[in-house]
Amino acid sequence: MGDFAGIIAGSIAGIMADAITHPLSTVKTRIQVQGSGGGAHGAVAYRGITHCLAHTLRNEGPVALYRGFGAVVVGAAPAQGLYFAGYETAKTFLGGGQSGIGNFASGIAAQLCGSFVWVPMDVVKERLQAQGQIKVTQTYTGSFHAFKQILAHEGVMGLFRAYPIHQVTWAPFNGCYFAVYEKCKQLCIDAGYEDGHDNLEPIAQVSCGATAGVVAASITNPVDVLKTRLQVAMANPEMFPYKNSLGALRHLIEHEGAMALMDGALARVIWLTPRLTICVAAYERIKAWCR
Which residues contact 104 (CB under 8 A, 6 or more apart)? Predict the structure, then answer.
């Protein structure tokens, strides 16, 4: 499949996956930021995933679960397209999917390509997702308004505030995800769960994606907590009094203890596993149609 077809397939797959799983992303973000400062800043605290969903629906309405979705829709297509194009290109030069190290490196290459769009998209999305839960210095009316205001008051760097830790979060995540995914995929092909053209049967496809998602999301949750807090920090500088990931780590350890690094881990697994399973499954099918 050519690079252009890869971009189209990746774009469609990304939008489909995000449309279904965005509410879980909102839950993940809220649970990860709620404890900053030991809960002394008036943020709404949730007991878990179902409590967060129920409380948000009851007090803010269903629209609150889709705050930031506009940024995702605008950014998903180019970001996901660059992501899969980077993955396929790297995989071609790094063993064609037959090497575990090559698959890990291909996942990292995919992340680096997609992050040029994903990082500012993520900042806008998470600022909006936390709105209504924490006290904010400025209320945004939507994704475009948030983008304009962040750019106007914080400059371009405001949109790339957590760029380094974004890479530390997602590069290992994607490397781990694709290493596990391709290994599971090869095991399924060897076991005969394919159509004769190396296209997995639907159940095998879902199983491979789910396994890879659970492993990768769990391992990288601690850095994701720091990344998320750093990206929403300027929404409430008193609650998030730090300017880099090291400061965020020190503040978290001091006020909440090391276990807080696993805040939102289950929500992250429940969000990312179906999101990536849907995305990769759709991508594989679209890719097969484009051949």
Answer: 175, 176, 178, 179
